[in-house]
């Protein structure tokens, strides 16, 4: 399929809310003062015309239109980009879970480097000391709540695993914020096959110098008996608040020197895996879940990396073994927060 060139043009307007209220003047009544948001400095807009012709709109013209149309406020959409110690996330205020998370894994970041051994008094993360928490970085109206998950039938599934953030206790605690969590089926998925995939991503660091991992909740259509495609999903909470994705994607980009003689020339590998939010048998092959990166981007409405990188990369399953290691264990004993999940939130 030939690559299509997409020109992204954006004009950002920053609204600053001016405080206001009701002014009372002795002897007469005065109408309430409505706060008028002010718009930021004008930004040029790249307009793509038919035939691919581009034209830069005059900032003053665009700014005037913004002032007139958005006089009482700019509805957004707002993208909460959350920069944490071990990851970056984009939070979806409508669905109340991450739109995506991104992380950079290396042997050093995972504490496995033989060249950089941590000092004896260095701090490291202990997941038994972490607790799930609502994220105050997001306005209360759009937050996922602890109560939403209580008796929902779903696990609080990490998008960035706690095991990827052992660099410090603070870093690990950030993975327990609900802005890094989405509802996942527990037995057979979050506690098993999904955990195997997370482990596989970490093990990539033994073969590649740099491993970049994107985790993306998806809502994919299903063909119904009447021949029509529909997207249906559950919403948990009372009142309903947090959407339950139908699928989850892991997209990886890896890098290593192409050869000892050319260490500055990287060999890039990419791959995408899409898993249903449902129990998956341990014996299922990881390659069964391989999807084109473009398919994930289209379903999520995201551009993860450039067409040039995709075209000049090898598939990850050609440069390493795409095979999970099954590790069954008693989650309640190994993962203390699973035991705490059955207790009501405070």
From TrEMBL:
Matches recorded under CDD domains: NUC
Annotated stretches, region: Disordered: 111-133
This protein's cofactor list reads: Mg(2+)
Q: What Enzyme Commission number(s) appear in the record? A: 3.1.30.-
Record keywords, A-Z = Endonuclease, Hydrolase, Magnesium, Metal-binding, Nuclease
Which residues are involved in binding Mg(2+)? 190
Molecular function (GO) terms for this protein are: metal ion binding; nucleic acid binding; RNA endonuclease activity; single-stranded DNA endodeoxyribonuclease activity
GO CC annotations on file? mitochondrial inner membrane; nucleus
Does the keyword section mention Cytoplasm? no
Query: Compositional bias (Low complexity) at which positions?
Result: 113-123
Query: What PROSITE patterns would the database entry show?
Result: NUCLEASE_NON_SPEC (PS01070)
Question: DNA/RNA non-specific endonuclease/pyrophosphatase/phosphodiesterase domain spans which residues?
Answer: 83-311
- Indicate the family of this protein: Belongs to the DNA/RNA non-specific endonuclease family.
Outline the extent of the ENPP1-3/EXOG-like endonuclease/phosphodiesterase domain. Answer: 84-311
Residues of the active site: 158
Give the EC class as a word.
Answer: hydrolase
Name of the protein in its database record: Endonuclease
Q: Which Pfam families match?
A: Endonuclease_NS
One BP term from GO: apoptotic DNA fragmentation
């Amino acid at each position: 399929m030939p690559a299509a060139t997409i020109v992204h043009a954006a004009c950002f307007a920053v609204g600053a809310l001016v405080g206001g209220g009701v002014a009372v003047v002795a002897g007469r009544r005065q109408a309430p003062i409505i706060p008028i948001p002010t718009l930021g400095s004008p930004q040029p807009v790249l307009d793509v015309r038919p035939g691919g012709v581009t034209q830069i709109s005059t900032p003053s013209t665009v700014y005037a239109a913004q002032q007139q149309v958005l006089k009482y406020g700019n509805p957004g959409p707002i993208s909460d980009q959350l920069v944490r110690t071990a990851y970056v996330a984009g939070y979806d205020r409508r669905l109340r879970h991450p739109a995506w998370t991104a992380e950079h894994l290396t042997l050093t970041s995972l504490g496995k480097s033989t060249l950089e051994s941590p000092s004896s008094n260095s701090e490291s993360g202990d997941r038994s000391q972490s607790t799930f928490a609502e994220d105050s970085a997001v306005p209360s109206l759009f937050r996922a709540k602890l109560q939403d998950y209580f008796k929902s039938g779903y696990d609080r599934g990490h998008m960035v695993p706690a095991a990827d953030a052992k660099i410090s206790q603070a870093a690990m605690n950030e993975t327990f914020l609900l802005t890094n969590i989405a509802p996942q089926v527990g037995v057979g998925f979050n506690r098993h096959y999904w955990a195997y995939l997370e482990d596989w991503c970490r093990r990539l660091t033994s073969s590649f110098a740099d491993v970049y991992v994107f985790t993306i909740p998806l809502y994919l259509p299903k063909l119904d008996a009447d021949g029509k495609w529909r997207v249906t999903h559950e919403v948990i909470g009372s009142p309903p608040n947090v959407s339950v994705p139908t699928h989850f994607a892991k997209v990886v980009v890896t890098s290593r020197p192409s050869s000892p003689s050319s260490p500055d020339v990287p060999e890039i590998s990419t791959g995408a895996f899409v898993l249903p939010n449902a129990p998956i048998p341990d014996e299922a092959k990881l390659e069964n879940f391989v999807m084109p990166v473009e398919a994930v981007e289209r379903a999520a409405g995201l551009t993860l990396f450039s067409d040039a990188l995709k075209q000049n990369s090898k598939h990850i399953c050609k440069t390493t073994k795409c095979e999970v290691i099954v590790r069954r264990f008693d989650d309640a004993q190994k993962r203390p927060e699973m035991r705490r999940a059955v207790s009501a939130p405070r």
